[in-house]
Each structure stands twice: as structure tokens, then as C-alpha cells.
Design goal:
Layout: E1 4-5, H1 14-23, E2 26-34, H2 36-45, H3 49-62, E3 69-71, E4 77-79, E5 84-91, E6 96-101, H4 108-122, E7 138-144, E8 166-170, E9 173-175, E10 178-188, H5 194-209
Parallel strand pairs: 5-7, 7-8
Antiparallel strand pairs: 1-4, 2-10, 3-4, 5-6, 8-10, 9-10
């Protein structure tokens, strides 16, 4: 995977990057995403919600360089041309999980089929990372379907070096005739601001509202 290095001296974000990287400032934002129409369309097509969520998140992330900016294995700052989702799958017997990955294609039906195949192969292995090698250009995506939440925060000891977004969804709930999915985005302030987090949430909502166009 090609990695595009950033010339920090001539980068428009240089001052922000240096300031927030030194402070190790991360933040999270949680929104309720309406998935009413999405669920209707998924039911009609007999698709699952979780792979649809993974697909939507990955599409939004790949539209914006800020969400693809981080350090490579050599410690160089830059961005990947695209991101691959690394997502958790639950083992109902051991009550643990595994983290696997599936490349996202433009065609959702193809991704959904590959997702089902990967889950079938790697679920129940008892290993945290059973599918290797993990792509270096991945972001963590997970879902906590047992409980809804109004906020969600992860604490990473190496947060100074991890700049990519971390996305978590919870159990959906019902309010005023709408089905609401809590979605939390954790991001490093060195590469993203509140504006970018807002863009992510708004575009995720747009994909949910217009899911018939891509399902």
C-alpha cells in the first residue's frame, strides 16, 4: 500500500499538529444516527446491519484525507490513499472477540459476501488477530450491541503515535418513531478538529438516509 509522506514544514496544519501532538490531545464525539430507512432497506435485501455499518464508516473515512493521516511503520507522517476496516467479531461461547479485516469494495453486495465468508472462517478461533497479516492501513471499528450509550471513550497508552479514528457503535434504540444507533468517533486532535468529526457524523447520516442508492 502506497504511503504519501507529508512535508511537515510546509503543511498548513503544522502548528496545530505540533501543539496537539505534544499535548497528546484526543477527543471523542458520540451522535445518534437514524437508521430507520437503512434497516428497512437491509431487511428488504436480506443484508445484516453490522457489515452495512462497517461499509458506511469506511466509505466516509476514505473520502477525507484527515481520517487517513497517521504514522507508518517507519514513524513517518503521511496518509494512505485508502483505509481498510479492521472490525471485531464476538465469540458467543467464550464471550471474547477477534479482530479481523475485510477489504471494502464499491459494490456493497460483494463486500457483504466477503464479510460473511471471513466471519465464518475466523469466528471462534480463540485468537485476538486470527487473520494475518493485518493491513497497516486499517482503522478499528466495533459494535457493542448489548447496550446503548450516550458517550464512549477509549484510552490508548500509545495515543501520541496513533492518529487514525476509532469508531464504535452501540445497541440501537427507538424514539419518536425513529431507530437510533449511537456512534462514537475517537480521534487525535493533531490531525482532526471538531469540524472534521461533524463532517464524519453528517456524512454517515447521509449514507444511512440514502442507503437504497448503494445497497
Amino acid at each position: 500500500m502506497t504511503f504519501n509522506r507529508i512535508d511537515q514544514e510546509n503543511w498548513k496544519r503544522k502548528e496545530y499538529f505540533e501543539h496537539y501532538l505534544q499535548q497528546q490531545t484526543t477527543f471523542s464525539m458520540t451522535n445518534n444516527i437514524s437508521i430507520t430507512r437503512l434497516l428497512e432497506n437491509l431487511k428488504e435485501k436480506k443484508y445484516k446491519l453490522y457489515p452495512a455499518f462497517i461499509y458506511m464508516v469506511t466509505r466516509v473515512v476514505n473520502e477525507h484525507r484527515e481520517f487517513r493521516t497517521g504514522f507508518n511503520e517507519e514513524g513517518e507522517l503521511g496518509y494512505w490513499p485508502e483505509i481498510c476496516p479492521a472490525y471485531t467479531i464476538f465469540d458467543g461461547r467464550s464471550h471474547t472477540f477477534s479482530c479481523i479485516w475485510t477489504p471494502v469494495t464499491d459494490d456493497f453486495a460483494t463486500f457483504h459476501a466477503h464479510y460473511l465468508k471471513d466471519v465464518e472462517i475466523y469466528n471462534g478461533t480463540g485468537r485476538l488477530f486470527p487473520k494475518k497479516p493485518m493491513p497497516v492501513n486499517h482503522i478499528p471499528i466495533s459494535m457493542v450491541p448489548w447496550s446503548s450509550f450516550t458517550a464512549f471513550n477509549l484510552n490508548i497508552g500509545t495515543g501520541r503515535d496513533y492518529l487514525l479514528p476509532i469508531i464504535t457503535a452501540g445497541k440501537y434504540s427507538y424514539a419518536d418513531g425513529e431507530v437510533l444507533l449511537p456512534v462514537s468517533m475517537q480521534i487525535h486532535h493533531a490531525v482532526c478538529d471538531g469540524y472534521h468529526a461533524g463532517v464524519f457524523m453528517n456524512e454517515l447520516q447521509d449514507l444511512a438516509d440514502n442507503s437504497r442508492d448503494w445497497l
